[in-house]
UniProtKB/TrEMBL annotation, chain A:
Residues 385-468 form a coiled coil. The modification 4-aspartylphosphate is found at D804, D928, D1079. It comes from Sphingobacterium tenebrionis. The chain crosses the membrane at residues 6-30, 174-192. Residues 485-704 form the Histidine kinase domain. It is an enzyme of class 2 (transferase). The keyword Phosphoprotein applies. This is histidine kinase. It holds the Pfam family HATPase_c.
Length: 1147, 277
């Protein structure tokens, strides 16, 4: 080292020396050079100065010469000036300098010449030119010669001087060369030194290189390892936690491709738990031809997998492989088949192909080994994971499945439970029903057995009875036939006989003598007797067969007795019998069937007259005794022996078979009388002694007035029938016909009492009507004009009138008005008829009972007679119907006619009010709400304001929905209301029947002991007087009952229909409620709520509230008290308890 | 699966004892109920609650609320909307035209259970434009079922059956016009619920509480013995307005009872009667 530094020092020093010498020699050379050139330049300049001076001198001298020669008059000044200039130039030439260190020789010449010139003064100004010019040229030549001399001299000088200087320069050049040589030597030394250093350096450099080479090698190795590690860890990181084998394979290959420059690669992964490897990923492979899968031990791949050792297969011809390039066919490449082994288990194979440098193969293999480990573990864990996942998914699926099944089960279970409940319940129902049924069955069986037995017996009896019935029927038929035939056959000739006898008896021609007249009257009397007998027979037969209907007539005793008296006055006079009627103890009036009563009494009396001798006495005593009316006919006749007394009431029996011959008579009278008496609910008694006379008494129950409760039996039947027939709404026509037939059957007994006046100008039609009216059981009177009709009506007082409108003298309208205005005829029902088209309403308004349009038919006639019948029969119920719609009105009328109820129609309020006054004994009013001349509700108020009609039931019949207030208002007057609808007529009839039958003893009385009411008035209840009670109840029955009861205690009543109204009433300061009766179950707001609501207002804290409840549960009752009621009463209300409770709370 | 021998049994004398007990400790009087039905129902409760007879008696006396529960479980609550569509047909065609002649129509559904019949009647009235002047009282002994009835909310799945019934009664309209379905339930429309009052009423002990034009009491009398039946029918008779109607279940009849003479049979098949006296 020392050597190297020494050398270096030497080297550096010699370099410096060499440099110094070179620089010095340079500088020296350059300096001498510049000195030379400076000097030369100086010489040049100096010589130039001399030249200039020479020139000046030449110029000036020439001027001067010219001036002196040419100018005639020389100006001394200019001459001077030129002289001075010449002098000056000569001076300059004389002045030595570096170059010319001595006076020039030529100067002397110049000077001399100059002086010469000076000395020539104006030589000749007037000289001729040529001389002068010659002189000048001469002078000029001399001047130039002198100047040339001068110039040459200077140049000579300069040459000399420069030569000197050149020598000096050459010397310095030599010196410089010597210096240069010296520096060369120094440089040489430097070179030598350098060589020595270099040699030294080369020696140490070789050693270093060797060392470096070693270092490089190890670094490379390190790098390789690093590379392997880095890349493999990169892949390890990348593939960690990838979700699928494919992703692992793909990522691994991608990672490798970044690291290894392969051409193509394939990655096969072993299927879990199998020998099959499946291509999971590939790069650069021709997909179609790539082996997708292989089995362990099959092919090279299989072998590698089985051996778990990698294999490197060199490839020469790349076209034989499964990769393609566009350009290359032949290339060296290596295919590396590398098994991925995890825990000694080949889990996959990576195959790569590429042109790998030989030295890289090792590290690639290393890389692959390392990478394969992480790939292997990743794959394994992936596969394990997949397995776990699969298992998990499976478990999840199973869980879900389970859940679903559970859900289904739950639903099914619920359904099952529900169905079970349902089943249980319905089963229960069924069972109970079954039990009930079987119980009923058992009972039925027993009863059936019993019934069967009885049935048998009955059947037997029935058979016998049937047989008998057949016999009886046959007999009865024969009898009826016989009767009919006989009566007809007998009556026909009798009619002639009687009429003729009567004519004879009247002896209008006066051509008979008294004897003959007497015969005629005998014939007439006998015929009349015969006719009576026939009639009586028929009568008896009818009574016996129960076909007779009893009438209810109001009998005034005065009229009755005078009537009876007049009947027998003549006879008594004739037989001079003292006949008296004693009515002192008789009731003024009573009700019975007048015709039948008369029949019986006539029978009694005629018998009495028959069996009483002349100047005997007969008394009819009518008296009332213990609720009965007695009619006693006492005679002083022959009397009847006790043995015979029972016999005489049998048909065709008299006291003695022989009597008939003596006294005459049919022997039917008493039989009929006895039958009648029983029909009249009475009886006949007989007291008699032989020779003492006898007393026949008819005893019938005393009925002071026509009482609806005791309806005649047939009407009752009819009404019963009507209710049971209700459902037969159809076939009305049939019913009408049936009804009229019934009427036909029933009516004939009226034949002799009811009369009808037919006022009709058409005689033929009058005859037809007459025959019809007779068929319907009327005696017929005919009038053929209006005036006669009026007269006849007044005289004969018929029971009914059929009136035609078109009449001579006075038309039907006049007749109708006259009759209706006459007191004596006002009551007679008039049925109108006409062929003209009249509004039926008008007739009805004017007081007619009906209208029959012509031409008539059997049906309309039947209808007319039915109407007449309904109107003359005072027993029938009468309804006033106020309804503006004729059709509806007729419909209702028809429906009621079926029920034997007489409907009087009115169409306006006014006519309704009029009829209400005219008609007596109306049973009910049916009122429409909407009427042409006002509201039915107003009319209701008008009717009800008359105390006479206060208790008359009114039924509101309307098609309109009424408001709650209206309904309430109506309900205050009447208890029922009807709305129009298809079934409304049924309801109407129901309601009317209900009123008519007066059966409406309420099934449920909301008050337990109403009878106590009266007695309770006696003790002090003044506490209640003038107190206001609020009745809150939805049940109108309760409200009515409580209202009427509490009004007797002089309480003021307020009504609320629900809880809300109750609260409002309490809150209303005008009402001043003192106590509240609160029902619990009410609409809108129930009682509990209402009580709470009332109690919310502190003002009402002391208002007594009594809860009214239908509930028997203690809890329910106590709840009301908890909520604020002061006390409670149960339904039905014990009035005693309620009154005392109210007294307690109000005192 | 519970073992079968774990079922509890009750004898008829024990039932009598229980009835007597219940009558004394509470207001419930079951003495008018048919014994065989009671036996089954009580046995069911015993099995449901795993009680023997002594436990049962103890529960009746000592467990608060058990009496109510007992009554709830003893009574059978089966009802559905438009049960027996024929009955409703008959009501609509025969009874409503008559009912509409009354200015106000008050109806009592006795033993209405969860109220389906009450709402069916309301729908019937609504269809005939009578609902606004009608008022329906629904009563039952069981206050729990009345709570359901008051709400008017029923499981939607039931409505399938109800719709079938309704269609059998009236094929023109749809039952869905009368309820609103949401989630898995359906509520009866509000305007159908306004003229209805649900209240407890014990047919065996309670009294007349109003006057009605129509009383329906279907499949209730079958649980009562003859004596109680008569009492209840009398109660109905007293609660009916004149010419009002009484409708009983198809297996129930009043023909055996003396009060029958005050009624007219309107429909034999569905046991509809009219009060005529």
């Amino acid at each position: 080292m020392n050597k190297l530094s020494f050398l270096r020092w030497q080297f550096i020093a010699s370099i410096i020396i060499a440099y110094v010498i070179i620089i010095f020699s340079f500088w020296y050379f350059l300096a001498s050079q510049s000195r030379y050139s400076d000097t030369v330049n100086n010489y040049m300049a100096l010589s130039q100065e001399k030249f200039n001076a020479i020139q000046d001198w030449e110029v000036n001298i020439q001027k001067f010469s010219k001036y002196k020669n040419l100018e005639k008059n020389t100006d001394p000044l200019v001459e001077d000036q030129l002289r001075n200039a010449i002098q000056k130039s000569l001076l300059v030439l004389d002045t030595p300098n570096e170059l010319i260190d001595r006076k020039l020789d030529a100067t002397q010449d110049a000077r001399a010449y100059s002086q010469e010139l000076f000395a020539l003064n104006n030589i000749n100004a007037s000289n001729i030119q040529a001389d002068m010019l010659l002189k000048i040229a001469d002078q000029q030549a001399r001047i130039v010669e002198t100047s040339n001399k001068l110039t040459n001299e200077i140049i000579e000088f300069r040459k000399e001087k420069i030569k000197k200087r050149n020598d000096e320069l050459t010397t310095s050049r030599y010196i410089t060369i010597i210096l240069g040589l010296f520096s060369l030597i120094v440089v040489l030394f430097v070179v030598v030194q350098t060589m020595r250093i270099l040699a030294h350096l080369r020696k140490t450099g070789n050693k270093e290189r060797e060392l470096n080479q070693n270092l490089l090698k190890t670094a490379e190795q390190l790098e390789d390892v690093n590379w392997v590690l880095q890349n493999s860890s990169k892949i390890h990181n990348q593939i960690n936690g990838l979700p699928s084998e494919k992703a692992i394979a793909q990522t691994a290959l991608n990672g490798m491709s970044e690291v290894l420059d392969f051409f193509a690669a394939a990655f096969y992964v072993r299927k879990t738990d199998s020998y099959e490897f499946i291509l999971k990923s590939s790069i650069g492979l021709h997909n179609k031809e790539t082996i997708q899968n292989f089995i362990l031990d099959e092919g090279i791949l299989g072998a590698v997998a089985a051996n778990k050792k990698h294999q490197i297969i060199p490839v020469q011809d790349i076209s034989k492989t499964n990769i393609q390039t566009g350009t290359i066919k032949n290339m060296d490449a290596d295919a590396i088949l590398f098994p991925i082994v995890y825990e000694d288990y080949c889990i996959g194979i990576i195959e790569i192909i590429g042109s790998f440098p030989k030295n890289r193969v090792e590290s690639i293999l290393n890389y692959l080994t390392r990478t394969s480990r992480s790939i292997g573990s990743a794959l394994q864990s992936r596969q394990n994971h997949a397995l776990v996942e699969e298992l998990l998914a499976e478990t999840q699926r199973q869980t879900e499945e389970l859940e679903a099944q559970q859900e289904e089960l739950r639903i099914t279970n619920e359904e099952l439970v529900y169905k079970t409940n349902l089943l249980e319940a319905s089963e229960e129902e069924l069972r109970v029903q079954q039990e009930e049924l079987s119980q009923a069955n058992k009972e039925l069986n027993v009863k059936a057995a019993e019934l069967e037995r009885r049935n048998l017996e009955l059947n037997e009896a029935h058979n016998i009875v049937e047989q008998k019935i057949v016999e009886v029927e046959l007999a009865s038929k024969y009898k009826s036939e016989f009767m009919a035939n006989m009566s007809h056959e007998l009556r026909t000739p009798l009619n002639s006989i009687l009429i003729l006898a009567k004519l004879l008896q009247d002896n209008k021609l006066e051509n008979l003598n008294t004897e003959q007249v007497k015969y005629a009257s005998v014939i007439h009397n006998a015929g009349s007797d015969l006719l009576q007998l026939i009639n009586e027979l028929l009568d008896l037969a009818k009574i016996e067969s129960g076909k007779v209907e009893m009438q209810k007539d109001l009998i005034r005793i005065q009229d009755f007795s005078s009537n009876m008296e007049s009947l027998f006055k003549e006879l008594a006079k004739e037989k001079s019998i003292n006949f008296q009627i004693d009515i002192e103890q008789a009731p003024k009036q009573f009700v019975t069937d007048e015709y039948r009563l008369e029949q019986v009494l006539k029978n009694f009396l005629s018998n009495a007259f028959k069996f009483t001798e002349k100047s005997g006495s007969i008394t009819l005593k009518i008296f009332q005794q213990s609720g009965n009316v007695h009619f006693a006919v006492k005679d002083s006749g022959i009397g009847i022996s006790p043995e015979k007394q029972s016999l005489i009431f049998e048909a065709f029996r008299q006291e003695d078979g022989s009597t008939s011959r003596k006294y005459g008579g049919t022997g039917l009278g008493l039989s009929i009388s006895r039958e009648i008496s029983s029909l009249l609910n009475g009886r006949i008694t007989l007291e008699s002694e032989i020779g003492q006379g006898s007393t026949f008494s008819l005893i019938i129950p005393y009925i002071p007035e026509i009482n609806k409760e005791e309806m005649p039996a047939p009407t009752k039947e009819a009404s019963k029938e009507s209710t049971s027939q209700e459902t037969k709404a159809t076939a009305k026509q049939e019913n009408i016909r049936q009804g009229s037939e019934d009427a036909k059957m029933e009516l004939p007994k009226n034949r002799q009492t009811k009369s009808i006046l037919i006022i009709e100008d058409d005689i033929n039609f009058a005859d037809i009507l007459k025959s019809f009216s007779e068929e319907y059981g009327f005696d017929t009177l005919n009038a053929y004009d209006g005036v006669a009709g009026i007269q006849m009506a007044k005289q004969k007082q018929p029971d009914a009138i059929i009136l035609d409108v078109m009449l001579p003298l006075a038309d039907g309208w006049e007749v109708l008005k006259t009759l209706k205005n006459d007191k004596t005829t006002k009551h007679i029902p008039i049925h109108m008829m006409s062929a003209a088209n009249f509004d039926k309403k008008d007739f009805l308004e004017s007081g007619a009972i009906g209208f029959m349009p012509k031409p008539v038919n059997e049906e309309s006639i039947a209808l007319a007679f039915e109407t007449i019948h309904l109107n003359i029969n005072k027993e029938l119920k009468k309804i006033l119907l106020i309804e503006d719609q004729e059709f509806q009105s007729d419909l209702i009328k028809k429906a009621f006619a079926e029920q034997n109820i007489n409907v009087i129609q009115a169409f306006t309020i006014e006519s309704g009010m009029k009829k209400l006054e005219e008609e007596e004994n109306l049973d009910c009013i049916i009122l429409d709400v909407k009427l042409p001349d006002g509201s039915g509700l107003e009319m209701l108020d008008r009717i009800k304001s008359n105390p006479k009609y206060e208790k008359l039931p009114v039924i509101i019949n309307t098609a309109y929905d009424l408001s709650a207030e209206q309904t309430e208002k109506i309900l205050r007057h009447t208890q029922s209301m009807v709305l129009k609808s298809s079934k409304s007529n049924n309801r109407l009839i129901d309601e009317v029947n209900l009123f008519l039958n007066k059966l409406s003893t309420p099934a449920y009385n909301p008050i337990k002991n109403p009878e106590k009411l009266v007695s309770s008035e006696s003790y002090g209840t003044s506490v209640l007087e003038n107190k206001t009670v609020l009745i809150a109840d939805d049940d109108m029955r309760n409200v009515f009952a409580l209202t009427s009861s509490l009004q007797q205690y002089k309480m003021k009543i307020e009504i609320a229909n629900n809880g809300l109204e109750a609260v409002q009433a309490v809150e209303n300061p005008d009402k001043q409620i003192d106590i509240v009766l609160m029902d619990i179950m009410m609409p809108e707001m129930d009682g509990y709520e209402a009580i709470q609501e009332i109690r919310k207002n502190k003002k009402h804290n002391n208002l007594p509230i009594i809860a009214v409840t239908a509930k028997a549960m203690k809890g329910d009752r106590e709840k009301s008290i908890e909520l604020g009621a002061n006390d409670y009463v149960s339904k039905p209300i014990d009035l005693d308890r309620l009154v005392s409770l109210m007294q307690v709370w109000l005192s | 699966m519970a073992e079968l021998r774990n079922s509890y049994d009750i004898s008829f004398p024990e039932i009598e004892e229980l009835i007597f007990l219940l009558k004394n400790v509470s207001d419930f009087d079951l003495s008018g109920y048919t014994r065989s039905s009671l036996k089954r129902r009580i046995q069911r409760i015993m099995n449901l609650e795993a009680l023997d007879f002594v436990d049962l008696k103890n529960a009746v006396i000592n467990i608060p609320g058990f009496q109510q529960f007992f009554i709830q479980e003893v009574t059978v609550n089966v009802t559905e909307m438009f049960r027996d569509p024929g009955f409703f047909n008959r009501l609509a065609s025969e009874i409503l035209p008559y009912l509409q002649t009354f200015p106000r129509i008050k109806i009592w559904s006795a033993g209405c259970s969860t109220g389906e019949e009450v709402y069916s009647l309301a729908i019937l009235l609504k269809e005939n434009n009578l609902y606004d002047r009608s008022f329906i009282y629904g009563t039952d002994i069981n206050s729990k079922v009345l709570d359901i009835a008051k709400k008017g909310i029923y499981p939607l799945k039931k409505f399938k059956e109800y719709s079938d019934n309704f269609n059998a009664y009236n094929s023109k309209e749809s039952l869905s016009n009368y309820y609103t379905a949401r989630y898995d339930a359906a509520i009866i429309n509000h305007d159908l619920r306004k003229n209805i009052l649900f209240s407890t009423h014990n047919l065996a002990s309670d009294q007349v509480f109003n006057e009605f034009q129509l009383i329906t009491c279907r499949n209730v009398l079958i649980y009562f013995d003859l004596k109680l039946q008569e009492k209840v029918i009398n109660l109905f008779y007293e609660s009916l307005a004149l010419f009002g109607f009484l409708c009983l279940g198809t297996k129930e009849t009043i023909l055996r009872h003396p009060v029958m003479e005050n009624f007219k049979v309107v429909d034999k098949e569905f046991n509809i009667y009219q009060k005529i006296k």
